[in-house]
Here is the input.
Amino acid sequence: MTGQAAPHLDVDRLIDDRRTRIIVCCGSGGVGKTTTAAAIGLRAAEHGRRVVVLTVDPARRLAQSMGLTSLDNTPRLVHGLAPGTGHADGGNGTAGGGSLHAMMLDMKRTFDEIVEAHADPDRAAQILANPFYQSLSSSFAGTQEYMAMEKLGQLRRAEEWDLIVVDTPPSRSALDFLDAPQRLARFLDGRLIRLLTAPAKVGGRAYLKMLNAGFGMVTGVLTKILGTQMLKDVQTFVSALDTMFGGFRERAEYTYQLLRTPGTSFLVIAAPEADALREASYFVERLGQERMPLAGLILNKVQQLPAAHLSAARSLAAAEVLQSAASTAAKDRPDAAATSLAMVALRSHADHMEQASVQRRLAEAFSAAHPLVPVAEVPAQPEDVHDLDGLRAIGQAFGPG
Here is the structure.
């Protein structure tokens, strides 16, 4: 399908390698990325790994496919792994000790956890009630990326799971979390933050001297822009930055470096469509620029061809012959209905063959542009995946080619 130049990606070998501790799935929307992440998590768990799947995508597909009613910031145990091989505790794991948990990133709750962990109770309560903090933790640009890094680092440090599968947002911003340490440093070291934290740092009479030196004029401008109460909220919040973050910048940098180690693998998920493969090329190139360990491409929804097949052209020709014969024959002849069904089947087969041919050309073009990127193909499923059996069917394509 993808041409001889494309090496095969053996996903089973990746998940069976105990040195693999983190798998990050990225790709554009509508390519089956969340389902693929879930299938990887399930297959790894049934191969004996202790797995947690973390989705940053707020859609509910992950919960639904795993038989859960909902997901939140707390890992939820997935039941029903590998029937007949579970422990006596009700099948929560496999005979090899595997287990599967799933969770969805709640960026505000993760931010709150940082506050609660790195501030004394009184200061934490003050920060959590601060209106500026509430706005920042819920909707500030970049917060999701910061918190994704924080949560990933928390999961890795917990040592409760030996494999973490990350399902990133379905867009190019999926890789924005790679910039989190640098963006956070720019934010904390920015001129406005230094200006707003200055009163708390100098304090007392030194603060009054600063005001006399011109700081009051700047504060007056900010007051007009933000309003008196908002400025107080902002100053109260930023004065607690050192306490609240408690080394967050260092932890974000630790997680960034963790993503570049041999224990991490990135998988780009795509469908055999022009737009999806164009986005896949972007992800491959971006990961290369960041020197992140790319394991390969998983190509979903691939149309399968029979071993011996009738070409699209011959199928359409046969349909035209049947149509010509039918037009000259009596409509009430016994085989009229069968002839009509045969024409429909031949045209449907021709469409299928043509679609497969287009997919083949697109995939080969991708591999020609990225000849060193291994590729694994997942056949198109007859229906949407909505349970563990559907995830297992996808996992069947993860072995050796």
Summary: The two ends are 12 Å apart (CA to CA).
